[in-house]
Amino acid sequence: MNILIIDPTTTLDEDVGYYETLASPGTHVRIEGLCRGPGEVANFCDVAHAAPEIVHLVSTIGRDADAILINCFGDPALDAAREASCVPVVGPGETSMCVALQLGTRFSVVAVPEGNTEGWVRMQARRLGIEAKLASAIGLDLSAVQVAQAADEVVEQIAEVIEGTIDRDGADVIVLGCTAMARVIAKLRQRLKTDVPIIEPSGTAFKMAEMLGCLGLRHMHGRFYLPFDPENITGYPSCEGGGAPTDLTE
Amino acid sequence: MNILIIDPTTTLDEDVGYYETLASPGTHVRIEGLCRGPGEVANFCDVAHAAPEIVHLVSTIGRDADAILINCFGDPALDAAREASCVPVVGPGETSMCVALQLGTRFSVVAVPEGNTEGWVRMQARRLGIEAKLASAIGLDLSAVQVAQAADEVVEQIAEVIEGTIDRDGADVIVLGCTAMARVIAKLRQRLKTDVPIIEPSGTAFKMAEMLGCLGLRHMHGRFYLPFDPENITGYPSCEGGGAPTDLTE
Amino acid sequence: MNILIIDPTTTLDEDVGYYETLASPGTHVRIEGLCRGPGEVANFCDVAHAAPEIVHLVSTIGRDADAILINCFGDPALDAAREASCVPVVGPGETSMCVALQLGTRFSVVAVPEGNTEGWVRMQARRLGIEAKLASAIGLDLSAVQVAQAADEVVEQIAEVIEGTIDRDGADVIVLGCTAMARVIAKLRQRLKTDVPIIEPSGTAFKMAEMLGCLGLRHMHGRFYLPFDPENITGYPSCEGGGAPTDLTE
Amino acid sequence: MNILIIDPTTTLDEDVGYYETLASPGTHVRIEGLCRGPGEVANFCDVAHAAPEIVHLVSTIGRDADAILINCFGDPALDAAREASCVPVVGPGETSMCVALQLGTRFSVVAVPEGNTEGWVRMQARRLGIEAKLASAIGLDLSAVQVAQAADEVVEQIAEVIEGTIDRDGADVIVLGCTAMARVIAKLRQRLKTDVPIIEPSGTAFKMAEMLGCLGLRHMHGRFYLPFDPENITGYPSCEGGGAPTDLTE
Amino acid sequence: MNILIIDPTTTLDEDVGYYETLASPGTHVRIEGLCRGPGEVANFCDVAHAAPEIVHLVSTIGRDADAILINCFGDPALDAAREASCVPVVGPGETSMCVALQLGTRFSVVAVPEGNTEGWVRMQARRLGIEAKLASAIGLDLSAVQVAQAADEVVEQIAEVIEGTIDRDGADVIVLGCTAMARVIAKLRQRLKTDVPIIEPSGTAFKMAEMLGCLGLRHMHGRFYLPFDPENITGYPSCEGGGAPTDLTE
Amino acid sequence: MNILIIDPTTTLDEDVGYYETLASPGTHVRIEGLCRGPGEVANFCDVAHAAPEIVHLVSTIGRDADAILINCFGDPALDAAREASCVPVVGPGETSMCVALQLGTRFSVVAVPEGNTEGWVRMQARRLGIEAKLASAIGLDLSAVQVAQAADEVVEQIAEVIEGTIDRDGADVIVLGCTAMARVIAKLRQRLKTDVPIIEPSGTAFKMAEMLGCLGLRHMHGRFYLPFDPENITGYPSCEGGGAPTDLTE
């Protein structure tokens, strides 16, 4: 089985190592970034500029995959990618919340940054129809870079926020709302004094992609998702070579 | 007051006439189309390719407007446009549904095309948190072009669907879910045997844009909407002249 | 266009000045109070005693109007007024919440008095089907008279409550839940350190009345709203002269 | 125990017989009509004109009761009556729906007339927060008078509607949405081929009034319900003698 | 009328006294415990072990009753008991919440123990479709035994929690979420400085059982509830004598 | 990895073959039935009699598993099993619905039997908080045995029901609501003229069990789920040998 992971930024610096530790035998992983778009995905304007290239990748190199993962908790361009794809496409935000439903009564999302986490996560939960299951969505005053460095005080800060939301908001499942959190999850589980399940979104979505691929499940075309019609679009030249940096500005 | 209407397609053929009949004295209207993107907005992939250019227009010529209307019932890139704007931005789908809440107990949306109308409108209603107020969303087996030609048999077909949803689904407000419906609304009101309110989305959103501009109301930046940071984006050259057709493929 | 504003109390002391600053050219404003009913509208019993006279005004002098505004945030007798009217009738509470839906993800209502604000506003939001969008409803320990005097410390108190609900409850839109707040809104916007949109209910409902009148939209009769049948009522003599103080006790 | 039943019309023609067959030993029943207001309660304007007199009855002769029933399925002035009362006040619509919750998964309301039943009942269910439990609300094309006469063909018509909603809408509880239905319930239960529970609203609300009186439960004043302040009201002279026909027009 | 009260534990120590003070003249009360199952009902595993014996009691000695009460706030095996019964079966949790809907806008449940109260009560409210009406569910750090002893400091602790939830969570109805609370309710009402209604679950459910029996209302078989088929079950020998302690381990 | 599949009946006749075709390399599968309980799980009374033995199996042989699947779409005793387990426990109903959320906008469940499917599935969806995403739940007039035989006319009947619910109810995902449907899914996919995703519950739950085991995710104890305390239970002798038929009646 071939899983394509799309990093929806122009600054890809991740390799396949983490996913290979989770992969079933026989699963191959490929990661691609964008040739045009945002350096990081932090707001709706970043999503707007990532979307055309995500559609392009899905409809070109995505044809060789059995399942596709768009690797950002905010699930940029997920619906468009599904229209352009004939294999299942998953997003870490959506998958994590659906898995959380099975692990307890209410979940909290702990993410970065502080500003728009609550609104954005609430919108994602509402889109899935599960807003009432969201106990809280807490944005930490940290950058994704700080999270990825996984210093002890960062782990301590996240752990305290998690313990607080269990006590105060009635959460019995925690979703980490940032793909950079994969770097802290081991330390975090060691530190916490509770057996609360903690969902790491990238790994969880990766396993869901494998699972949907194995079960032969993908989205229907013709109702909510219509087929992508490239003839309807003008002004977007293809990136040659599947994600290679043929910048439009050239 | 200056209202900027963005037609989110590359095939703009509308003029300001309809809006000028609705405008308050002193309101000026400008309509702009996209220099790159979809020929029509029918699915999520079309939205994906309209989004960057909508953000560009909002953040350039939008600076001279007092309010902005993105003139497609599907509300493409509405959230991104709000991030890029310092004036209020409205969408016909969202505005029509919010006005419908004030005019009755449950509303039905009658739109084209048949395929994805129900799912798309339901998603828009859920995003606003008002899915329980949506009595039904019915996609007609007509093209937008057929609607715009407003032949008598088309008016008759729409009228019968409206009378059916009032009887069967308990709707007491009708929302026309396509901006082309502005061409049929006069005939439609004449034909219908009921006094049900029928909301024409483009005109309604235009008046809402005027109203928000008059009241000095616009979206907050810093919580759900963060500011647009053009420095974070690479690969999207500006369209010169505010929407002039400087195609990227050239 | 003629807008009739009904003050649902027997103690009218407002003039048309505020509305004329907001009115489009060509809009005429008339304000009428009740000849019998409550001195102020603070609870359900006050609403009960305002309702017959509101219906009377709507069905008499309301016939000369193009749209009617019942000017109390609690929206007293709104449904009955719509039955008795053949033009659109709006209420500041309902309109403000519907406009708030378009300006952010969740709104808070800041009102007076402390006692029943939360329950009442929640009931209004539930009636519209948007309770999940209500971040909080906070009743201040102030009288409407104190608010109307707009002393600096009152503005300061309201401002702090607003900043608190943005931080704590995730609100990104504020609705002022009292028509007396029109007196403090200018000072309040000046004082606040955030660009959060603040909806002043009377002015917003006034503009909505104009907009619905312009668009020719009014409530349907025959489904939720039936026509008013004065023959069915006994024991309520008409107030002569359209709201003149012909008290029943005389 | 003393139960006061208020018939919210000026055309009372019911006696205490039906309630005495249901009453526990020691319960006394009194029925009073209105001295001013509507001949029947069919729409919001009728409610508006019944409300002041309901408040008056509750706050005068209601002081001798242990519990009060406002005997109309539409629950007119229920909130105002609770403010004016120091004993529990129940309404047949609200009570029937709350009992229905305990008897199955989803309930249908079968009522007269055809026009506004669906919208009105849905509003009542939404007010209680249980709209999702309402399978359907069906208005029959019959008058309350026809229902009260209980002819065989009327019983047959109601029975067929009930069987239809069980099959089609998934209802497993039926609420009769009109107090006149007390006249047909015995025949109806005999006719139906199913053991579906059928809730007759007047009798059910009467027993709930007894139960709340027995348990010492009544509404709180100070949060949602404030105390009734007669000093705030002008223009409504008392009806002498507790409901006697001292018409205001004299 | 005969009411059967099932104590879903093997450690019954309650007599009929409390219920006889609430019973209408002519009502007879019988209480039975389980011959196998849990010593107390504190979690889902306890419910699992109480369920077969509850079904057995309902389908044997329950045949002589006019209504049945399963006397635990957690409502163990309520659905199965209804399938096995041809008379109405009520549970204190479900009944208390349905009565609470009629007594205010939002209710809080105050219960023991601290651990799983919030999650359990929320699940019960969601099952009824009324989660949005639950202001809060607070588990006290007390045992049921401590509650039953009703010491002054326990009453004080409960009273303070109640006053807190009214102020903080907007509750205007309180539900005591433990049948042992019947021992403290008199002292509690005396102590509280507010007139908030406090629902004692056992007595309330007892009166509801009487009411449903009087009205001839019971659950439908064939849709949600199918008939109990003992032939389908193997391995569960009957307890002889209707709940007598014929332990399976003998 | 070891997956334990519990068949919650006393009539197990399934082998591990189907699961081994889906299993990742290195996954071992064990299936166990009950030594006491129902012959089939068709109603709540059947669940009541399966529950104690499910808890017993989970807390004995379940200790050697990495994840546990209770293999019935009705999810019997799922909460109790989670309390008794220190590894993840999944149910096909719950898992299928959570996966369906990721594959479209609304799902329909097609199941047997006709009687209680709609109510039961709706209850499961409400428990998860996703009732609004359930387009319909349709019970076929077929037995599970008929489904398992997979005759062509049975496949045709199911296919027509699926096509009907897509057209009529707006479903874009189908969940088969019966584990016997695993026998028809291949024929069904071949027959259908649409690319709608069809979720087979047993296989999907099996893969979810593997996935949760791989990710180290299991339910928290101490909030909603408390630990199982066997000391609290009397009258349930252990089945020797982990599910061997030591019948209590002997």
Terminal CA distance of chain A: 36 Å
Named CATH topology of the largest domain in chain A: Rossmann fold
Number of helical elements of chain A: 9
Number of strands of chain A: 10
Order of helices and strands of chain A: EHEEHEHEHEHEHHEHEHE
If you had to describe this structure to a student in words, what would you say it looks like?
6 copies of one chain form a homohexamer. The first copy, chain A, has 250 residues and is an alpha/beta fold. Chain A folds into 2 domains: 2-91 and 204-232, 3-Layer(aba) Sandwich (Rossmann fold); 104-196, Rossmann fold, CATH 3.40.50. Helix content of chain A is 39%, strand content 15%. The first copy, chain A, has 9 helices and 10 strands. The first copy, chain A, has helices at residues 17-22, 44-59, 78-84, 92-101, 117-128, 144-149, 152-169, 185-191, 201-215, and strands at 2-6, 28-32, 37-38, 67-70, 89-90, 107-111, 134-139, 173-176, 198-199, 233-234. In chain A, the strands form 2 sheets. Chain A has a 4-stranded parallel sheet, with helices on both faces. A 4-stranded parallel sheet of chain A has the order 7-6-8-9, sandwiched between helices. In chain A, helix 5 (117-128) links the parallel strand 6 (107-111) and strand 7. In chain A, helix 2 (44-59) packs parallel to helix 3 (78-84) and helix 4 (92-101) packs across helix 9 (201-215). The longest helix of chain A is centred in the middle third of the chain and has 18 residues, at 152-169. Chain A starts with a strand and ends in a 16-residue tail after the last strand. The model of chain A is unreliable at 240-250 (pLDDT under 50). Chains in contact: A-B, A-C, A-E, A-F, B-C, B-D, B-F, C-D, C-E, D-E, D-F, E-F. The interface between A and B is large, with 52 and 52 residues.
